[in-house]
Amino acid sequence: MLDHNDIEILKKLMQGVVKESEHSILNKVDIRLSETEQHILEKVDVRIAETEQNILEKVDVRIAATEKKFSEQITCSENLILNELDRVQTHMEREIAKTQENLDELKQFYRIDRLEADNTSLLLKMYNDMQKEIAEIKAQIA
Q1: What own/partner pairs with CB < 8 Å and gap ≥ 24 does 103-107 have?
Q2: Is 56 exposed, middle or buried (0-12, 13-18, 19+ CB in 10 A)?
Q3: What are phi and psi of 140, to 5 degrees?
Q4: Is residue 2 within 8 Å of 10, Cβ to Cβ?
Q5: CA 18 vs CA 27, 28, 84: distances in Å
Q6: Tens-level pLDDT at each residue, the chain (142 residues)
């Protein structure tokens, strides 16, 4: 059997082995944790980069769609404005044509009125001249 000294020596040997084993295990655990942490960080970095790229692509697509929609709305608005301008122009051209017809009619009426006034003045002068001639003839006869 083992005596007390042998047991103490064995105990110290066991403690040394346990300490070395513990230290070795802790070092290996630290290394594994560090490797795992590094591996996880690399995967997270890759995922973040992929997600970032995905988000940027989606944002680019949305921006392009928004720009296209905005451009289409501007084009639609331009077309509405141009159509309204065409409609107003057509309406105004008709109104101007009517006004021109009325003006032409007024000019014609004014010419006719002036000619009638001239004719009336001429007839009145002729009447007065005839009255004078009649008066002269009456004076010569009498």
Answers
A1: none
A2: exposed
A3: -70, -35
A4: yes
A5: 14, 15, 95
A6: 678 888 888 888 899 889 999 999 999 999 999 999 999 999 999 999 999 999 999 999 999 999 999 999 999 999 999 999 999 999 999 999 999 999 999 999 999 999 999 999 999 999 999 999 999 999 998 7
